[in-house]
Amino acid sequence: MILGCDTHSKLCVFVKFLKQIQMDTKFIFNRKSKLNQNGTALIQLQINGTRIHRPLKSTGIYIEPEYWDEKRNKVKKKHPNSDFFNNQLKVFQNKWTDHILSESFKPGGIDWEKIKSIKNIDKIGLEKSQGICFIIFFEDTVMKECNKTYAIGTKASYNQTLNKLNLYTDNQPFQINSLNYDFCTKFMNFLLDECELNATTREKHFKNIKKALNEAIKRNLYDILTNPFDKGFKFKAGKTEPKALTMSEVKQIEDLDVSYSPTLQKTKDMFLFSCYTSIRYCDLVKLSFENFIEENNEVRLKYVQQKTNVPVSFRLSSLFKTENGDSKPVEIYRRYAELNKKGKKAKPGFVTFFGWTNQTYNKNLKDIGRKVNVSEVLTAHVGRYTAITNLLNTTTLKVEQVQVIAGHKSYATTLGYFKPREHDLNNALEKTDWTDPT
Q1: What residue ranges do the domains of the chain occupy?
Q2: Which CATH architecture has domain 247-425?
Q3: Nearest-5° angle of CA 140, CA 59, CA 41?
Q4: One-character DSSP codes across 235-274
Q5: pLDDT given for residue 241 in this prediction
């Protein structure tokens, strides 16, 4: 197609103007040559409109002087968030270039006084830039913060969510503002149909996505009008109440021989210890030798719960005794005390009793569950739920006594586990004396 002279000349002017706009915007670092109390300074965008109109716009990004590349007008690669910051600077620059370009076509041209008065480019009614990659933002912002504040399990959870998003998008980058209602609906179907994930795991992934979007909103990087969680997108699975194993099902696990696999053997012992004591997994893996107190051939378990900060102390030797008078949890204790006897000389809390913080604990439990005939999928919490339920329903212990073992703050929480099963009720009915006392 051959353009007419008039059309061609207009196009040349347009291209020249576009290049001029791009060339006449540059970033200025530490304009006042003064660092704040954190040792950082602001990066600003200078728009060189005319000799007297050169407005400065704050990018909101502060860095240390050693990370600014004056020659290349960008953040140096050695900065841990260089990719994210440089991408954010480019997006900011493009927003202003687009706006000034659009203003130049209006009657009367660019109103530089109006340009100076604009404090936030995102609040002038223009379409938000779609330039920030969600994966990069998640890794550079959310994940970096996790390294400072969150536990290993949380970091692993975030990595799993990123892996699923990369699998869904075939490792193609996607912009943060593309995370809308439609995206989340299709991703939910992908997790359900392709990945075959259960409701709880799907909920975990969307909680992580929501966390990232909230961080982006705080930084004015995400259009709140796009937020699917404000538009009615539902991802919560609802509370699925775990069910306790019966003592006969616990017996199946006790009798299961997995000695051929040290990993499965340790998983089995830890799970049974939880079934006997109601200890949470987060406390179980942190048990040290000082948590077991031996006095007069008796063993007492004493620890402070990580979740509630409630101290727990009870006589381990009195729980789940066998016919010969031995305590099942004490048997496990003595076995690992012998295996880890060198740990007794370590500093308090330095050597964990089971010597293990395996993140695949639930996966190993599922392997054990497939080898026995139990009604529930085995998870870490099933062990605790089993202990509390069986202590309430199959022993003569009172609710307040079980409350001490479970470490619950409230009586009502422990009482919620009191749900006698039908066969327990039938046994109680059989033992009831129905004769007329008169």
Answers
A1: 15-123, 134-230, 247-425
A2: Orthogonal Bundle (1.10)
A3: 85
A4: ---------PPPHHHHHHHHH---TT-HHHHHHHHHHHHH
A5: 64
